[in-house]
Every structure is written in C-alpha cells, then in structure tokens.
C-alpha cells in the first residue's frame, strides 16, 4: 500500500452541528441515567429480544453501562476520525481524491457515532420507563429503526465513495 496523503480537514457547519449534537447527547444520556437511578427498582431489564421485549434482568447498576459504552464508543470514534488516512476505502486513495474521500468517510463516522449515542439513549430511556410501567420493552419498531438508521446512511456513503473514485 502506498503512503496516503495526510490532510487536515475543515469541518463544515453540518459537521460541527453533528459534533455538538453528539456531545450534547452524551451529556443527556448521563443526565437521564443519573437523575433516574435512585428511582429504579433493584432489578431492571438488561437485555431485549428482537421483538423489543425484555428477556434478561439484572441489578440496577447495569443501567450505568449504557451511557458508559456510548461514551467510550463516541470518544473512540472521535479519536479515530482524526486519522482518515488509515481507514479502509473501497477505492484507491490518491492525492487528487483524498480530500473528497476523507471528507465523505469522516462525515459517515461522525453521523454513526451520533446515531450510536441516540440508540443507547433510547435503550436507557425505555429501560428506565419499563419498571415504572410506562413502557413494555423497547417496542417492535426499535430493531428495524436501529438497522435503518445505521445501514441506510452507510449504503449511501459507500455508493457516494464509489462514485467519487477520481
């Protein structure tokens, strides 16, 4: 593999907005979890099946894993996004196409990390609602929505990457 160009990417307004929304969502999921922690019963749902029904239960401390995992993934992807020259691309990266390819790839990562936080936030929200009787599982809509929010944009960005080979 030849040495790929290392470029400093300028964030667009949309990119900055996604970053701000992502960090705000991290704070929101932590706030939601901490504020509601003392009201949770000792046993809460910790796993849901494909239909969105709770099928595993554990101690209420496990609710803290949701914002923790979301935060670790978000920060990890934020750090990774600083190095687009190490990503895998479906096309050869040249000096001519590096800016477009890197911009496309980092925007996808930025979008995905925001969506991941939203998904973990929804799981935390529904998990907090379940013991109080305000919800029954995640809902049948949760899995298709999650898959759509992840795979539709990924497909779009991969097609966009393939179209901008040059």
TrEMBL record:
Q: Where are the transmembrane segments?
A: 20-38, 62-80, 108-128, 140-159
Identify the keywords attached in UniProt to this record, alphabetized.
Answer: Membrane, Transmembrane, Transmembrane helix
Q: Pfam family example for this protein? A: DUF1648
Record has Membrane as a keyword: yes
Task: Give all residue intervals belonging to the DUF1648 domain.
Answer: 26-70
Which superkingdom does the taxonomy of this entry point to? Bacteria
Q: Which InterPro entries match?
A: DUF1648 (IPR012867)
The identity of this protein, by name, is DUF1648 domain-containing protein
Source species, please? Raineya orbicola
């Amino acid at each position: 593999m030849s040495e790929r160009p290392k470029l400093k990417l300028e964030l667009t307004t949309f990119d900055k907005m996604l970053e701000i929304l992502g960090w705000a969502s991290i704070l929101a999921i932590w706030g939601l979890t901490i504020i509601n922690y003392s009201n949770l019963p000792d046993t809460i749902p910790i796993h849901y099946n494909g239909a969105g029904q709770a099928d595993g239960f554990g101690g209420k401390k496990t609710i803290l894993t949701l914002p923790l995992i979301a935060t670790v993934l978000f920060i990890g992807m934020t750090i990774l996004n600083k190095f687009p020259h190490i990503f895998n691309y479906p096309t050869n990266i040249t000096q001519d196409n590096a800016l477009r390819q890197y911009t496309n790839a980092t925007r996808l990562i930025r979008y995905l990390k925001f969506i991941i936080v939203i998904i973990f936030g929804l799981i935390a929200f529904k998990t907090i609602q379940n013991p109080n009787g305000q919800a029954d599982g995640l809902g049948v809509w949760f899995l298709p929505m999650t898959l759509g929010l992840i795979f539709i944009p990924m497909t779009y960005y991969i097609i966009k990457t393939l179209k901008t080979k040059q």
